[in-house]
Amino acid sequence: MTQRLDDKNTQVSLSGKGLKGRMLAATILGLALTAGIGGWAAHAKLAGAVISQGELVVVGETKQVQHVDGGTIVEIPVKIGSLVEKGDVVLRLDDTQLRIELGIVTSQVAQLKAMMARLVAERDGLDVLSFEGLEL
Predict the structure, then answer these.
(1) Per-residue model confidence (pLDDT) at position 62
(2) Keywords, A to Z (predicted)?
(3) In sequence order, what are the residues at sequence separation of 6 or more whose Cβ sits closer than 8 angstroms to the Cβ of residue 96?
(4) Read out DSSP for the chain?
(5) Which are the contacts of 93, defined by CB distance < 8 A and separation ≥ 6?
(6) pTM of the prediction?
(7) Closest CA to 111 of 132, 90, 133, 134
(8) Are 34 and 42 in contact (CB under 8 A)?
(9) Torsion of CA 20, 26, 32, 36, to 10 degrees
(10) What is the largest CA-CA distance in the chain?
């Protein structure tokens, strides 16, 4: 079926043969895109953290292991099926952040003690600071 558009004998096809080819191409492209994304999702190595709770079985009883702040586990010295006793270390958390915070707080305590010694010297009219009684 054809239809005349203007006086120059230009005709256009209304049969839809070009539409079938486009639908086939779109379907193939969609399948290829889905397969590509699915393949990437299955094989991609993503760096990330998983947050979860763990459970240990102790003499038939289940004990939950939780940490108030959470953190990164750096070592698990026990193996599956190991017998553990009270006081045994079952996992170690990374203490880097805690050591940094301890250093900061220790520095702040030293600064406050120095300020206290200066203020006591000013109050008592001393020319020399005295750190007696102030453990640094």
Answers:
(1) 61
(2) Membrane, Transmembrane, Transmembrane helix
(3) none
(4) -EEE-STT--EEE-S-HHHHHHHHHHHHHHHHHHHHHHHHHHH----------EEEEETTEEEEE--SS---EEE----TT----TT----EE--HHHHHHHHHHHHHHHHHHHHHHHHHHHHHT-SS---TT---
(5) 67, 71, 72, 73, 74
(6) 0.42
(7) 134
(8) no
(9) -170
(10) 112
Q: Which residue carries 């010694």 as its tokens? A: 117
10 beta partners: none
Is-contact 112 94, C-beta < 8 A? Answer: no
Locate 59 and state its tokens: 């003499």
d(CA 92, CA 78): 11
